[in-house]
Amino acid sequence: MTISSLERLRSELRQLAEPQVRAQQERVLSPADDDELLGVRVPVLRKLARGYRELTLDEVDALLRSRVHDERFAGLLVLAEQVRITRGAERTSLVDFYLARTDCVDNWDLVDGSAPVVLGPWLLDESLEVLDRLAGSASLWERRIAVLATLALIRADRYEPTFTLVLALRRDPEPLIHKALGWMLREIGRRDERAMVGFLDRHAPELPRITVRYATERLEPDERARFVRRR
Q: Does pTM surpass 0.90?
């Protein structure tokens, strides 16, 4: 009997699992009670996904609907590979599929591993209205997807969408959003410190303390303290 690509991927995941990695996952991910963690390292998942670009969307969907955390992550990384090698209408259909499955992107590592490389590249050539919709969602994970997707824009030296989201989400109740905002500001600072510092000069007193702390990690101690004291 011929083994399908999907079955082969699932088998490989179990062969690549490491008990110590699973223990780390359990500590940092706070998985849902019905989540199964295998313990596959993220770089290993990425390498594995590159060999399964030919999966159909139905097969990717089966991975995303799995209650095995590592299978969902693998499905998202396969989708990212497909986005990377497509353009135009085909890429848009993949992004639409991703946006229709955000209920499966239900932990911070899944968001961080997918939003910048699935939604992000598409935003470079398309309307940014989807960011407003996601940022206004009741779902923590959709809001974090909006923030992390702007990493692709930051790498293209387009900072305003991130600044806009930082202000829109500055009163968000979730620390995971505050941290993501600070992370993206820090990424801007890596490319254009003047732009980030200028934004903080104007808005640091309005931002969550943890956002400012994350954003200023790479600044000189005196300058960092100047912003943190304003919180």
A: yes
